[in-house]
Every structure is written in structure tokens, then in C-alpha cells.
Amino acid sequence: MLTKIKIIITLALGMGITVLYPAHASAPKAEIAMIHLAIAKTQPKNYAEIKMREYGWGDKQLRCLKQLWGKESAWNRHADNPYSTAFGIAQMLGEKSRNPVTQINNGLRYIEHRYDNPCNAWQHWQRNRWY
Length: 131
Hints:
Layout: H1 2-15, H2 29-42, H3 44-55, H4 59-73, E1 86-87, E2 92-93, H5 100-115, H6 118-128
Antiparallel strand pairs: 1-2
Helix pairs in contact: 1-2, 2-3, 3-5, 4-6, 5-6
């Protein structure tokens, strides 16, 4: 099974595949979590794209998210704001996790809750330099 996981990770990282497994796949949750972590650590934009599809957000929203988090953290999971408690890719206030999967998931939930979608969050950032 580990060999299959390595193949999936290699394909996902090398080719930017956004759907790693079919909806009916029966891979154990731990294996899926390991795949997601590997992608998020090395290619956080690809992982964010995978997760965005769960919200029904398409390419336009992805472009907005890339700009937003590019300005916030340059997609760096270690980004630390010296002027606030913001940390990580999404620069969430009080974020403690160093796990990029957690950072991206929390950031997307925040955007949906507060702004409805990444383009609205990006528009707010452009006006205010924060979101």
C-alpha cells in the first residue's frame, strides 16, 4: 500500500492533479491524510485547489485565493506576522498549527464564513490591506 501512496503523491506533485482518488475510493483515512499533508507541505496551492472544490469554488476563486494568500504569506506555512498573532499561509489570528493542511482548511472555512468566497475576501484585502 505504501508504494501506491508514493505513486499517488508523485503524480499529484509532478502533474498538479487536483483529484487524487475517485469518490468511491476506499483508501483508509490515515493514508489520505498522509497524501494531503505531503501535497500541502510541498505544493500548498495544489492542496488548496483540491479543498476549494469541496466548496464549489472554481478557477476564478482559485486565482483570487492565490493573490490573497500570496500577499498575506507568500504561501509560506511558517510566515509569522511580527505585528500581530497572525501565522501561517492564511495568516489567521492566533493560529498555532504548523500543519499546512490545518492552516489551509481553517483559512478556507474562515473565508467562507466571513466573505462567502475568496474573491470577496481578495476585494476586501485590496481596499483595506487585511481580510
